């Protein structure tokens, strides 16, 4: 991990959507990335959603997958803003982060380059971290804050060994760390997708214009204009974390919850006006602490962090293994 630090500055952060290849040549534009087939889409906010190449059909032999979710009330921890983040590049490279807080600090970062077999701890670029997103095997950006809670963007070109100095966020997506109802968007630094009195549990973007927010009351809200306006996009009671990606040219929404017949994390597909579809039952234990479940859904895989446990899933999200 001891590589020379690239000196490319962070400029022109709000570029139009372009391919990930172009983005890889311009590390200063993480949220200006477009949506090519290989671009990752993470569960906490990510650049460049992509169309899934894996089949979304559910194998009949998997009893926990592709079934209509039960209407049982959620039995897990009360939904709270996510504090354990996972941001994936693909089935091999992923980052985990603990958000920490602006006043007390405590943010942590870990990265895997071998599919979760081993994790390396790296120094976080700020006291608190609201978002972490890999752009390539050794390139990553994060959005975080110091004691003032003023969000800044940071970039590393050596797998987190060193970080460029933080700069003002322009064109980015992230949850604000000082007020749980607020999110930073390209068009509004203090958007409130869930309303003025309802916390945002999680936020996931698919392009410079499109993103979704999971609300404490279970609502899923969507914006298609960079955060200027938000509309109802479904609901899942007890939702703990949100992930999405583009499948067959359509925004597809996944929410992690606890309840029904699943003893662990019930990953459901959410479609407005339709019953929840249980895609997979992941693991057998659920952390008791608030905000300790995170989701990242990318083109070739899915990742779920549940407290200290980490799980990765195949492209159609029906088969999962603990890492």
From TrEMBL:
Highest taxon in the source lineage: Bacteria
Region (Disordered) residue spans: 32-82
Entry-linked InterPro entries: WD40/YVTN_repeat-like_dom_sf
Bias kind Low complexity: ranges: 45-75
Protein name stated in the entry: BNR/Asp-box repeat protein
Organism: Humibacillus xanthopallidus
């Amino acid at each position: 991990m001891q590589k020379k630090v690239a000196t490319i500055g962070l400029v022109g952060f709000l570029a139009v959507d372009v391919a990930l290849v172009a983005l890889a040549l311009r590390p200063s534009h993480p949220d200006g990335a477009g949506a090519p087939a290989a671009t990752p889409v993470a569960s906490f906010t990510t650049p460049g959603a992509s169309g899934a190449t894996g089949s979304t059909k559910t194998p009949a032999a998997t009893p926990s997958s592709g079934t209509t979710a039960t209407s049982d009330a959620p039995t897990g921890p009360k939904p709270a803003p996510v504090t354990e983040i996972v941001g994936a590049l693909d089935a091999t490279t992923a980052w985990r982060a603990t958000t920490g807080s602006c006043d007390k600090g405590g943010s942590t970062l870990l990265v895997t380059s071998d599919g979760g077999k081993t994790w390396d701890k790296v120094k976080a670029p700020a006291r608190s971290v609201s978002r972490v997103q890999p752009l390539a095997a050794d390139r990553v950006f994060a959005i975080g804050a110091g004691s003032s809670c003023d969000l800044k963007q940071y970039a590393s070109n050596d797998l987190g060994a060193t970080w460029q100095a933080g700069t003002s966020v322009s064109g980015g997506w992230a949850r604000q760390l000082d007020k749980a109802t607020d999110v930073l968007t390209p068009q509004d630094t203090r958007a409130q997708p869930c309303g003025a009195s309802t916390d945002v549990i999680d936020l996931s973007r698919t392009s410079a214009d499109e993103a979704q927010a999971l609300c404490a009351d279970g609502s899923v809200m969507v914006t298609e204009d960079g955060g200027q306006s938000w509309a109802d996009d479904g609901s899942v009671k007890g939702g703990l974390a949100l992930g999405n990606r583009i499948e067959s040219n359509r925004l597809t929404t996944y929410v992690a919850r606890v309840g029904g017949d699943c003893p662990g994390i019930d990953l459901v597909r959410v479609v407005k006006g339709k019953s929840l579809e249980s895609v997979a039952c992941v693991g057998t234990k659920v952390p008791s602490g608030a905000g300790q479940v995170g989701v990242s859904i990318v083109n070739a895989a899915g990742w779920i962090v549940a407290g200290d446990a980490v799980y990765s899933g195949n492209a159609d999200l029906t088969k999962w293994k603990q890492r």
